[in-house]
Protein: Tetratricopeptide (TPR) repeat protein
Organism: Amycolatopsis umgeniensis
Amino acid sequence: MEVEPRRADAGGSDGDGAEITRLCRTLVPLAAAGKHAEAASTYRWVTRASLGAPRRYGDHAMRLEFCALTGNEHTGFDLLSLLDGVGDHSDAIGRLEFFASAALLTRRLTETGYGEIRFVLNGPYDGLSLRLLHRRMRAAAFVEAEELDELDQNDYFTAYAEQKMTAKPVTEFVPLLPSALPRIPILPPPDLSAEELVVRAEIHNHRSEPEEARACLAAIGAVGDEIAPRLAELRAIFFQGDDTEERLRRAAAGFRRQGDEIRFLLNQCWLGLWLVFDDQAETGVALTTVAAARLRAGTDDRAACWGEYWLAHVLSGQGRTPEAYEALRRGAERAHEAGDPLLHGTLLCLEASLRNGDGEDPVTTLELAQAATDAFIVGNVGEKAVEAVEQVRIAYERVGSLDELDVFVENLLSTLPASGPDRLRGHLRQLRALSLIGTGRFADAVEDAYASLGIAASKGKDTAEHWYVLVTALHGAGRYDEVLDVAPHTIDLLIGLPDWGHRCRWMYADTYRALGESSRAFNEYALLAEILEESGDTGHSYISVSMAAAEQLDLLGYGANAADFYARAADAALAIGGGYVAATCRNAATLSRLRSGDLDAALTALDAAETAVHAVETETAPAREHLIAQLDHVAAHVLSAAGRIREAARRALRAAETFHRIGEAESARDVDLLLEQILLGDQSG
């Protein structure tokens, strides 16, 4: 069954959506007036209240517009998934609003350098770049506007659509969550020459910043012959496909024509790696080995080091790790002598990664990874510093030295310069949040989790783990309203990660329970139980979730349905040898049947509970005594309702004596009160 939820779980019901629409209309004006906190709070409220509601495209359009005009374009990106079906929506004005707002959002995303990102949706727009999607949305908006204008014989809607699609931001940034930061644009500065853009792309390549590199490459039009080979090589690397080998060879030919031996040999190193990847291992290894050796014999230190780096990649892929380590050692020594911290750290980090993967001595691995981290901090290379710290973490975890990892993280956070890489600082705070959660210090973890997510999201590097850690910290800290703000998005991100996904769904349901939203809590518990059952997981998680769903149904007054859930939990528990849990569920199901007013069903359930309880033999004596006392307490309720007063009193008296004997004073008091009611009822009869 499904219980009808309250539409607006943040307060009050809103059956027709009028309140959501009213508040959506205030979003942009609030931001324009500088009331950022109020605008963010309102956005979170309407987002939460819209979950599960009928699609009102006019409301969603206003949310898209707000995101586009307040520096939250990437938050609005998720709303574009609603495009699947908007064309069939019956409200023509709603269609116009949504298409125009989608055009506005995709325009802003393109303007900030994300136009080449592909839109993934199982629908007519699947696979389009955001740049092309913008054109499609703009065209669709004008089609809707022109049809509306034909009805009224004017051009009002066309002008309205144009105005909406060309709107300028009303403020630089409205933080929608604590510690949120504006997305850092990846578009290169304007007016750079093609050669300057190629140089920037090469730098981003070496710094492990692929999106920034792609943005530079996308900004380059026609180029002269002098830089064409470099551009061809970079495009082959960053836009890989069936013709990657051909494009790399074409770039190599260009370098040869220009007499650029260094670039030619570096190209051959990368081409060799590609061939190995493309199942041409023998040719690829030979190509990279020869090219790296020639670079090693040359005078260009940086080129020689990159040759060793690519050679190590190729050799390790063939299982020749001792030779790979030797190549990396040669390269690291030469990079250190050349005073290049980026290159030095890159070589050390790769060796640490290979040693972690091969299960090599963690002490040596730690030294390499920590040295790489230091080098990347000196070079202010955030992405690579995160990679190095991850190798430190893996090495500490391999030897079970989590306390030492905590010390490493704390020391690095306290010594990291203020001008140091923010991405590294965010990652360290993520690791500290995980440690705090692991020791039950959820409230302390919240600030770190928010800060880590904010920094990562500003670079487009936020992952499902960032969001999951935040939900876990907020739930553990009892900050339930905030859980409702972030859990739905987190659940979407966790598709394909069932362990985290199921745990996050449980926290979401439990949050509604804690807030007294029993109908919403039940719906979420029941959904999770269904997901677990469909996946074949009817073990402990399924049992506990089914019991939780039953508890909420009892609170809502659906006793018969609660009993059904308890019965499912009992069957599942019995199937895995959990007789004690099964008996507890049978006891609870009996009371639920009684609450539903079906006395005959309650008496039948009591018989099943008696059988289940007396079948339990494996538990300790105190546990069995508790279970029997619980059964006697339940029986007293049912027998009293059936008018069997003497039996009811006897069972209640026995339950009270047992609870007193095993030290469960609160349960004993409950039974004493029941016994008093039974006896008074007997006297009055």
Remarks:
- The two ends are 40 Å apart (CA to CA).
- The first helix runs from residue 18 to 24.
- The chain has a mean pLDDT of 93.
- The domain at 498-682 is CATH 1.25.40.10 (Serine Threonine Protein Phosphatase 5, Tetratricopeptide repeat).
